[in-house]
Amino acid sequence: MATKYLQIHRLRRVYVWELPVRIYHWLNALVLLALIATGFYIANPLALMSQHEATGKFTMGWIRYIHFAAAYLFFFNFFFRIYWGFVGNKYANWRQFIPFSKKFFKEMWYVFRMDILMLKGKEHMSIGHNAMAGFIYFLTFIAFLVQCLTGFGLYAAMSGWWFPKLFAWVPNFLGGDIMTRQIHHWSMWFFILFVVIHVYLVFYHDYVEGRGEISSMGGGWKFIEEETFERGHHQTPNPEKPAKDVEKK
To answer: Which helix (H) or strand (E) segment is 191 a member of?
Structure first.
């Protein structure tokens, strides 16, 4: 009688996403949704039919208030993430986002071939962000900065607080409010496209790899095959120091 063997994967429990990173991620998701929804309304307001006086409804006022409040959260959350890129663990480190090594570019091309072109090849293993994801996040950080500059630049003329007035030079630099508003609007579409691709890839990798991609942004842990560590194929694109935040299961 043929003997059948059941292969059991040995998994290592790795603490990847620290609590500040997870808070940043979900807070950013919420404020982006608020900014996009209110931004669409501000750009093209609905004709709301009502028997009440417009001064009593104050619909646009509330929409703008939500937009501005979300903008402040977006701004300070963004700069907190930059700070955490210097004090957090190696998976949150700024080195994982800026390509300055041949290994980083090589891994970017490999991930592009596997995830975008769907070409056959060996599975790529990256515990934190792979090189392609890290570089895309780097581009989003630049888009974050553009969105903050143009948004507060437009707000500076109508705000009485000193902080928005620090950005009063932006419309003059870009050639006026119209161009500033256009750039602000184009940046919003970049974020919409990014969210669609990001959600798709998260579900795709969670389904294909089964390492807890989705749940890791809730609890911080991923589950990686022990063989990956034995082969030494888990290094990040720009390694800084050995990981100490692992737990065997």
So the answer is: helix 177-209
Q: How far is CA 101 from CA 52, 82, 138, 175, 247, in A?
A: 63, 21, 15, 37, 29
Domain around 42 = 20-46+54-203
Q: Cα angle vertex 191, ends 61, 110, to 5°?
A: 170
Domain of 67, CATH number, reads: 1.20.950.20
pTM given for the model? 0.84
Share of the chain above pLDDT 70, in %: 82
Q: In what order do the strands lie in the sheet with 221-225?
A: 221-225, 11-15, 246-248
Listed residue (212, 21, 198, 26) closest to 127, CA to CA = 212
List the chain residues with pLDDT less than 50: 1, 242-245, 248-249
